[in-house]
Amino acid sequence: MVRKLLSIWIAVITIVATIVSPIGTKRALAAQSEAERVIKSIGIMKTDQGNLSDRNEIVTRSQFAQLLVNASTYKDMAWNKTNLSLYTDVQKNHWAAGYIETAINNGWMSGYLNGTFKPDRGITLQEAVKAVTSLLGYTNSDFVGNTLGGQMALYESKNLNENIKKSSREYLNVADCINLFYNLLNATTKTGVVYAQSIGYSLNSEGKPDYLSIINEGTQGPILLDANWKSKIPFSLDKATFYRDGIECTQYDYNDYDLIYYSEELETVWAYDDKVTGKVESINPDVIAPQSVTVAGKEYSFERSEASIEFSTMGSVKEGDVVTILLGKNGKVGYVLDTHDFNTRSTGVVIETGTHIIKNDEGKMVSSDYVVYVDAAGNEYLQDYDNVLVQFHKGDLIRVTYKKGKAIISEVGKTGAPLSSGSFNGDGSYLGDNKLASNVKIVDMYENNYVSVYPRRLANVPIFDSSVIYYEKNAQGAISHLILDGVTGDQFDYGILTGFASPASVYSTEFNYDYIIDGKTGTATGEFISGELSEEGPKGLLIENNKVVAIRNLYETKVTSIVGSSVYNEAASYTMADECDVYFYLNGEYVLSSIDDLDDISNLKVTAYYDRPEYAGGRVRVIVAENR
Predict the structure, then answer these.
(1) DSSP letters of 507-553?
(2) pLDDT digits (tens, 9 = 90+) for 467-480
(3) Regarding predicted confidence, which is higher, 14 or 247?
(4) Long-range contacts of the stretch 335-339 (C-beta < 8 A, 24+)
(5) DSSP string computed for 71-97
(6) pLDDT digits (tens, 9 = 90+) for 407-461
(7) 224 DSSP β-pair partners
(8) pLDDT value, residue 13
């Protein structure tokens, strides 16, 4: 059964400094934000006088000396004290004396001929360039003739100047230094090693600094959110940044039993509200040393050893118990609660039914009917039930509640759209007059397939009563759970239908459909589909267990330009889907390409294929380019 879930992704965006446009500016800001997160998480901007946070503040030479230490292998080794009075204006009791001594001894910085260091003077670009090129392993002997000119040329060739607009004698501010050290991490040393790796940070599969790992390195948690959670955070919350399930919010949006993490360097707190309630079906591999647990049909590993102990011989949870597991940022079990501690219910759409063998409360193996259903958070649950009293089918909306550890399952009526609904607003934060909670859970169904959706995906999309299967509001009156019916079209795979053939045998009624999806060829069987749907070309395909369940035609438009995430014809613009495939049609074959190959389309015939109009939530799913 095919499922597609959207996920939060973080990308490092490279900016061409000469682009001056709203899109270019937005990308530049994104790059600066990424740089700021990385540099702050490493702690480079942290001095003994406090964090340098005002982006416009000029950085002094003494502060810059400590920043150099923070960005080197001397971090956590150099001390702010020294036994020597280094300069007439840097006595041994100066707050940065030890850092200045380290910078001088390593050749990163130097004093002036009159015996001063001028610790309170701003750091100039040329002084900073000498320092960072020294960190990369270059010395004066590497530059023939004009040493300063050679250092500045290296500064540019190593892309250390990315997002820095200062001349050589100008002072650098905090924003400049953030970009300089971020660029330093990406640069290669004199010996060809990525600098971030040379000071102990890992690289990703592309050989670039693993920024997610760097950002997460200083993250602490999980902590169970209770009445005393604020006392466990080692920094002031007045200026902190808060997230809940990946969405920026306030601390007042947090609820009991959320799992929280924090970064002292970033002064940021993340909360996760991902809870699964169900029967403990198995403890794996055993209760002596449990490594994972299967709850409601799905296996979960442990994030905390304390959580695994609860499922061991030393804990109180055993197979057959109904519990609520609290999942952290990696989808692992952080804490476990029984249904007496946490009363819960879940509502969702049935996507599978069947019969299987289970162990009952008396330890006997018996046959039981079950349903698999998906809730608004995109969580799947397997729930056993007695079919003598009720029978469930695919597409039913059901609710499971728990009383004294026993599951009670019932069918509930579909709610339809809330009153006064009409469309989502421009950022997806309202459905008509109804506010969506900051961490609203949204899933969009199509047949037995579903996709989790973020509110911004629904911006300006009209909603009809039949488009809403279920909604639920929180105590503040905001919509907290929303199950939609076929609103986005994101459940389909989009690609090229390349062939349609009759059954290979007179005994078969199924036809063969050849396709290309994500550049990979495949064949699936399915019932006969007549008309335009069976014609070759770009299509939407819904394939389950190698069977074509549905085919969707796409509309086409000639492309005159592509800017950012939008394609344009002569009259309108169309937004590209996150997973839009680009193909070149060459010699009768479709060859997978990328949007980067369409920077100049003046000599190309480019056609975009979209599933529905923009105002109805449609997206460009496939782009085909041909030589003119």
Answers:
(1) T--PEEEEEEETTEEEEEEE----GGGGSSEEEEEEEETTEEEEEEE
(2) 999 999 998 899 99
(3) 247
(4) 335/222, 335/224, 335/257, 335/259, 335/304, 335/307, 336/307, 336/310, 336/311, 337/257, 338/405, 339/277, 339/402, 339/404, 339/405
(5) TSTTTTT--S--SS--BTTB-TTSTTH
(6) 889 999 999 999 877 899 988 899 999 999 988 999 999 988 999 998 989 999 9
(7) 259
(8) 25
- What is the sign, positive or negative, of the torsion defined by CA atoms of 157, 162, 165, 170? negative
Query: Kind and range of the H or E element at 41?
Result: helix 22-42
- Please name the residue that has the structure tokens 């770009």: 538
How deeply is 593 buried, as exposed, middle or buried, from its count of CB atoms within 10 A (0-12, 13-18, 19+)? middle
Say if strands 620-627 and 573-586 run parallel, antiparallel, or are unpaired.
Answer: parallel
Q: Please give the Cα distance from 375 to 356 (Å, whole number).
A: 22
One-letter-per-residue 3-state SS of 244-294:
ECCEEECHHHCCCCCEEEEECCCCEEEEECEEEEEEEEEEECCCCCCCEEE
Q: Which two tokens stand for residue 220?
A: 């602490």
The CA-based diameter of the chain, rounded to the nearest angstrom, is 99
Question: CA nearest 183: which of 391, 15, 381, 352?
Answer: 15
CB 59 within 8 A of CB 122: yes
Q: φ and ψ at 180, to 5 degrees? A: -60, -45
The candidate with the shortest Cα–Cα distance to 351, out of 467, 483, 439, 442, is: 483
* Residue 588, phi then psi, degrees to nearest 5: 80, 10
The partner residues of 537 in beta bridges, in order of sequence, read: 497
